UniProtKB/TrEMBL annotation:
Protein name, per record: tRNA-specific adenosine deaminase
A GO molecular-function descriptor: tRNA-specific adenosine-34 deaminase activity
Lineage: Bacteria, Bacillati, Actinomycetota, Actinomycetes, Streptosporangiales
Alphabetized UniProt keyword annotations: Hydrolase
SUPFAM superfamilies: Cytidine deaminase-like (SSF53927)
Domain of life assignment: Bacteria
Amino acid sequence: MSYDQELLRRAIGLAATARDKGEPPFGSLLAGPDGTVLAEEHNTSIGDRDITAHPELKLARWAARELDPATAAATTMYTSCQPCGMCAGAIARSGLGRVVYALSGEQLASLQPPGTGFTEAPAEGPALFDEARVPVEGYYT
C-alpha cells in the first residue's frame, strides 16, 4: 500500500523510543485499512518486568479486546522486526489481517553478538491422551 513505508518508519521510530527508554528496541503499530493508526506500542519488557511485553503481543491483545473480527481482519500491523513465535501466535489468534515488518528474524540475529539468542527448552509429549482429552472433548463443537 502507498503508506506502508511511512507506517513502517513510524514503527522503527517507536523502536528508537523504546531504546531511548532503556527497553529492547522494538516498536509496532496497528493501522486500519485507510492507514489510520489505531494503536501503537513499544517494548516494555524491562520496565514492566514482563518477558511478554512485546509491542506485537500488546497490540494483538488490544485488537482482540477492542475490535470486532471484521475490523481486526481489515487491519495491518507494522512492526520494526519480524514477530517472534509468541507474538506470531497471538497475531494469528487475534485475527489481524496483515503484518508488515522491517527486519527479519535472521537479520536481527545478525545484529546480535553470538550467544545472546534464546535456547528452546526440551519438550516431551504427547502423553496421557485419554485423560487430557476429557476437559477438551466437545469444547470446539
